[in-house]
Amino acid sequence: MMRAAFFVAICLSHAALSWADQNIREAVQDYMGFATYEAGIIMPAQLDEMVFKAATFIDTRDAEQFEAEHIPGAKNIEWREIPARLQELPEQGLVILYCNTGTLSAQATFAARLLGREKCCGDARRDNRLEPRCGMEAQMKLLKWIDIPPVWLTAFAMAAYFQAQYFSFGLSLDFAVTRFVAGLLWGGGVLLGLLAVYEMRRQDTTIIPHREADRLVQSGIFSRTRNPIYLGDLLILAGITLYLDAVLALVLVPVLARVLERRFILPEEDRLRRKFRADFARYCQKTRRWI
Hints:
With about 290 residues, the chain is mainly alpha-helical. The chain has helices at about 1-35, 50-55, 65-70, 105-115, 135-145, 150-165, 175-200, 230-245, 250-275, 280-285; strands spanning about 40, 55-60, 75, 95-100, 120-125. Helix 6 packs parallel to helix 8, helix 7 runs antiparallel to helix 8 (about 230-245) and helix 8 runs antiparallel to helix 9 (about 250-275). The model is unreliable at about 5-20, about 30-40 and about 125-140 (pLDDT under 50).
């Protein structure tokens, strides 16, 4: 009796799975049968300023890439999580899903539309960028040039000056040895930067952030640290802060390190990892990120 019941249960479970599988196949077939060629796709030319402001942007990359850089106001839902977090996608209004290349967002868009979110669109990439029109493109390009390490370094140095002038609270390290150390730090930072620029120029690769490197530089100063320019920025800020006698502003040095790491180093390492693969992995094993 027990064997018969067990056999019937197995048969019923197989039947249920077959029925569910058939329903899924029919749902996909229905969607594919009625979907137009451009269903779920938004072209770059359609992203004018009005659309850009009204749309909800969903970043389908992983959390690390999202934190490093994303469209202002975008929400991060990794492409694999779209079915489980479907309720977080607005039912009304345009929803644009994007990633670095359009591959992940295309799969996420397909899943979302299949599950009933017909207002979802995947971005149609050109040059791997999401390009809003009518002034927004120019603004984003301008932000790219503002968001560079020298600008961040200047802003932090100005904050140190402001603290030294108006919020010193009587704290001071103004000694001859301190000024000597400040000079060493500043000079060391400048020297690191110059050595890094020389090596990158010699290897014929770009020194501009946000751009893809042509070569993996491992020689010269890059054999000692993977980020000599950013390390130099930290030394320069430390030297300026000591020279200004901005004691409280010394905490800005680790803060700048965090900013440089999140906004520049991690995205750059991600690009190098994708392009140079095993070579970059071996480089990381033998050379530290900082010192």
